Every structure is written in C-alpha cells, then in structure tokens.
Amino acid sequence: xxxxxxxxxxxxxxxxxxxxxxxxxxxxxxxxxxxxxxxxxxxxxxxxxxxxxxxxxxxxxxxxxxxxxxxxxxxxxxxxxxxxxxxxxxxxxxxxxxxxxxxxxxxxxxxxxxxxxxxxxxxxxxxxxxxxxxxxxxxxxxxxxxxxxxxxxxxxxxxxxxxxxxxxxxxxxxxxxxxxxxxxxxxxxxxxxxxxxxxxxxxxxxxxxxxxxxxxxxxxxxxxxxxxxxxxxxxxxxxxxxxxxxxxxxxxxxxxxxxxxxxxxxxxxxxxxxxxxxxxxxxxxxxxxxxxxxxxxxxxxxxxxxxxxxxxxxxxxxxxxxxxxxxxxxxxxxxxxxxxxxxxxxxxxxxxxxxxxxxxxxxxxxxxxxxx
Length: 372
Known about the structure:
This is MFS transporter. The protein is built from 17 helices and no strands.
C-alpha cells in the first residue's frame, strides 16, 4: 500500500507529462486534483480490498503527474531572484503534510472512523481544486516535454550527478525514517504518545529546514545538498548510541528534520540547474527518481529490519548518506559548473565546466522539434 503508489508515481511522471505536453499546465493540475478527490471518495466507500487498491493506484498517478508539473512551476511564475524561496514554498507541503496531515487524519479517524477521514480529505482536495481555478495565474507558455528531451538530458554530467545524489540521500532517508517508530519503541523505549510528539517535533524542524534550504540552495546548491546529507549521516549513525535516551533521540530528530527538510528543494534545484532550458523535464526526472527511490528505500529498510534490527537500519542508512556526501564532493573536486554558469560561491572557477558533456539549449530545443 505504501510502496506501490511511489512506483506508480515514478512511472506516471514521465508518461503523463509527455502525453499532456500540449495541454495548459494549470488545467492539468486541476485534473490531478479531481483524480485525487475521486481516489479519496472511492476509499471512503470501498467495500473490499480491491477498491482500496484502485484508490491507491489513482493516488500514485496523481503524485507522479502533479509533482512533475508543480515542482518546476516556481521559475515560470516568479522573478529569477525569487525562485529559491518560491520553490521552498512549494515544497513546504511535504513537511506540512507530516505536521498537520497525519495528526489531523488520525484525530478524525479516532473520532469518527477512517471512512470519514477519507471523506474529509476528499472535500479538502475539492477546495484545493477550486483555489487553483480561482487564484493560480496561468503559467507562461513553455516548450512541452518530449521523450527525446528527457533522453537528451542524460547526456549531461550534472543530470547524472543529480540522479546519483538523489538516489543515495533518498534511499538513506526513507530506508531509515520509515522504521524510526520501531526504533523509538524498541531502543528508546518510548510510549506511543511520546512517539507522536517526537514526530511532530521532527515535522516542525522539517518545515524550518525546507525554508532554510530554499533560501540558500540557489546560491550554493552543492554545499546545501551535501550538508543536508551529511547531517542525515551523522544523525542515523549516532541514533543507535545516543538514541537510547529520550533527550538524545529528540535532539537527533530535530537535526534530522532540519536536514531532510532541505533535501527535496535541493534535489529539484540541482535538476533545474543541470537543464535550465527544460525546467519541466527537470521536474519529471526529479519526481520519477525521488518516488522510485522512496519506494526502494522503504522496501530495503523493511528487509533489513526483518533480518536484523532497527539499529542496523540506522547504521546502514548513515553509511549510504555518507556516500552521497562523497559524491557531492566529487562534483566539486572535478570543478564542474552548471550550464547557466551557476556554481557554489566557494567553488573554484572551471575553465571547461561540463559543457562538453551537457546538452546545450540548442540540442534540447532540436530534440523537442524532432519529436513534433
């Protein structure tokens, strides 16, 4: 139920974005919101497992399509100097969902039953749909995403680095965080009420990390992304040691929340800077890679927990996050810059950059034209 929507989102992200390339993006966001509302209402009315499964399929399709379009809209709606902050606002939905959505859903479910929870979520989704229609300005026209454009992006070394870094940090995070509750129960020996409070604190820290990362990532994408992964590595490696006490666990969860809060906005920014002339295609790769790795991380973490312990999951996750830091350092050591000339302020100038390996604006445009 958790893994399948992520895998579906990874597959639907490129397929739906390419298939709807000629459609207005605001219209498509509204279509995805309508699909999500129907998924919630179907789950509320479901009389058997298979209807619940269909609703989860609809959720997976919605996630892939919505985020592929929505994640990259910031630079089409605001001035260039405000893109980092606007992207952070978009991605604030992720930690806000943890802080507000999960407790609210649990509260409604305890009060009136799980079916009512889905009805309320469906009604809220319709409210979002109405707000999109009334308040969101139409994005300026942009070249539609084509499969040939996506293929051309893989020629760029920065795109390949973005895929590698995202894979490592998301695998590390979801392979561990998915099983943080068993860790708190078995190692920290906290009650269910305390765990709820701890995760709420983590979520609040995630909101702070999202906006802190968004404020800095445009200027220092490499440093912010690498620092976030480094903090996740430190936290997960220390949890089996310091997480035996409640105070130690809370302190590390706060750092973890701040660090992971910066990950989605950093990953999206890296993809966008790797292909500045194809922002929607960058969002497609970000969404597909993120969702696929999220599912793989949760699945891998489960296998490790079944054969060892939550502490071992944390240790392995820390090692993987440390590998991501090394990969980010390798990007710096090679003196690579981005196609638009952007680079970390503390990076050394690079004479050649990665222009020889990155698709130029003309190549991406040519690829798009050839697919018409």
